[in-house]
Amino acid sequence: MRLQSPLTYCHVCLANIAYAPDGAVVNCRCGVRAQTFVYPAIFRLGTSSAGEAVQAEGEAVCFAHEGKRAVAACDSCGRFVCGLCRIEWGSRVLCPACVNAAEKRTDLLTRSRPLYDTMALAIVLGSLVIFTLSVVTAPIAIYLAIRALRAPRSLTPRTMARAWIALSIAVLELGGWGWLLTYVVMVGAKR
Amino acid sequence: MTDTARSQYTRLPGRKSGLLRRDTLWLGMDHVLFVRSSRFTEDYRRFYLADIQALVLQERPSGNRKIVDWVAVGVSALAVASLLVTHHQVWGVLLAIVASLYAWLALRREDCKAWVQTAVGTAELPSLCRVKSARKALAIIGEKIRAAQPPMPAEELSRVLETPPPLPFTPAPRPPPLPVSPDAARPPSPLYNAAFVLLLGLGIVKLSTAFSSSTGFMWAMPLGYFCFLAMLIVPLVRHGARNIRGGRSAAVFTSLIVAGSIATYSLSWTTSRWQRKLQDANTQKMYDMMERAAPLQIGLGVVLLVLAIWGLLAFLTTSASTERRAGGPQTLFGPEGS
Fold it and tell me: In degrees rounded to 5, what are phi and psi of residue B66?
C-alpha cells in the first residue's frame, strides 16, 4: 500500500511536497498549494485472507468451502462465507454468487451506457440541415428513440425529453415525405 | 436497478466540458460516481466511500495570469472601440470575436486538480478543475466518507503516523534522468529567426506607411501576413498538432484562421489596388481612410515590432540554452514531438 505520485508530488513541477496529515495547505516551490485529506481507510490493512480452518465441532462453515470457518453472512442471500469468499461491496458483504448475479441484473457493475436518445436527436437535427437525408435518417432516429425509451437509461438522473423530441420530429419528417409522395402520385394521376 | 434506485445520485459541484466530452461527479448512497460522457455514451467509475483513503487538491498558482488576462481584455476592448469608432467595423467585429474567444478560454482555464486515492490506486477527478467547486465537492464527499468510515482512535492514528518509516507516505523513488537525445543539441530552425527578422522589417514598413505610401510598402504587408502564417504552421507541423492540447490548441487554430483570412484579404486588396480595379466607391473610401489613419498604422507597426523583438529574444535565448535542454529541438510550442 503506497501513495501514488499526486499525493507526494507537485503535478506542475514534480517536486516532492511535504505531507500535512491534518489537511493543512502545503506550498510547493513553484507556487502550487496542495491539500491532502486522509481518511481512516488508508491505515486499514487488507481484510481478505485464505480463510481459517474449522477449529471445533459445530462451528459455522463456509457455504462454498466446507473446511473453512464462516466469518460473515452474505447480506443478499444469507449464506455463510469464509474469509476467502467474503466480498465487501460498499457497506455490504456479499458472496461471489451474489456478485456474479448482480453483474447481470443490476447497475452496480455497469461501466458504460450508450445514450440512444442523444444519438436520435443528433441524427434528426442533422437531417434538418440537409432535408433530403431525412428519408434515411428519420427511420433510424425512430428506431434509436424507441430503443432509448426501452433500454436501460443513464445511471444519473436524465429525462427522456430528447427521445420524445427526436421521435416527434422524425415522425413529422416521415409524414412530410408521405404527403409529398402522395401529392406527386396524385398530380401524376391527374395529368 | 429500479428508477427509485437510479435517482439516488445527486450531482456534486464541478464540471469539465468540451465539445465531445463532459466530466461530472455524482454522489450515491455509498459511493461517488465519476461520469465521463462523450455525448453519445457514458462511462462510469465508482469510488466507494468506505474505500477512499485520501482526497488531494492541488491549486495552481494564479500569479501574473490574472494580470495578463485583464491587460489582454483591456487592450482588446480599446482596440475594438477604436476600430469601431474609425468605421472599421469588419476588423472591429473580427477582433471582438478573437477577444471573446480569449476571454472564454481564460474563464474556462482550470486552476486546480483533484485526485481520489483508494487501495487500488489514485485517480484524477477532472470535473473538479475550479477551486471553488472543488472545495465544495470535497467537503461534501469528506463528510460522507467520515460517516462511512469508523473513526480511528487518536492515539492509534498518531502512533501510525509517527512510526518510522510511514510507508504509505514514502515517496516513490524518482526515475533516473532520461539520456539526452542527440537531437537535443540541435538549435531551433533558423527559419524562426528569419521569420521574426522579416516581421521586424514589416513593423518598420508598417510604421512608414503611416507617413508615405508606395508600391513596395503596399506589397510588403500581405507578404508579412503570410510570413506570420508560416511562423505558426512550420512549428505546428514540427511540434505535432496532436501534442497541443486544450485551450492552447483552440488559440493556435483560431490564430491560424484569423491570420489566414487577413493574409488572403490583404493580398486580394493589394492586387486590386495595384491593378487599379477598385471600382467600388466604398472600398476606395475605406482604403483612403486606412491610409489617412496614421494612429492605426503606427499602432499596428508597434504591435508588429514588439512581436518581432519578443520572438527574436525568445529564440536567441532558446538557442543559447539548447545544450542544457533535453527533449528535442525547440519549437514555438515546446520541444518537438513532445
Answer: -65, -40
CB B48 within 8 A of CB B119: no
Question: Which B positions 257-276 lie with beta carbon below 8 A of chain A?
Answer: none
The rounded distance, in Å, linking the Cα atoms of B111 and B100 is 20
User: What's residue B134's pLDDT?
Assistant: 92
Residue of B nearest to A152 (CA): B1
**Coil, helix or strand for B44?**
strand
Burial of B55 (0-12, 13-18, 19+ CB in 10 A): buried
Which element (helix H / strand E) includes B259? helix B246-274
Unique residue bearing C-alpha cell 461530472: B24
* CA–CA min distance A55, chain B (Å): 30
Query: Alpha-carbon distance A83 to B19, whole Å?
Result: 48
Say what the ipTM of the complex is. Answer: 0.77
Q: How many CA atoms lie within 13 A of B85 on its CB side?
A: 9
**Separation of alpha carbons B228 and A23, rounded Å:** 49
Classified by CATH at the fold level, domain B3-60+110-149 comes out as PH-domain like (2.30.29)
Nearest CA to A2 out of B318, B53, B242 is that of B53
Q: Which helix (H) or strand (E) holds B84?
A: helix B65-85
B117/A11 touch (CB, cutoff 8 Å), yes or no: no
The per-residue pLDDT for range B229-260, each reduced to its tens digit, is 777 777 667 666 666 665 666 667 777 777 77
CA proximity to A51, closest of A17, A97, A82: A82
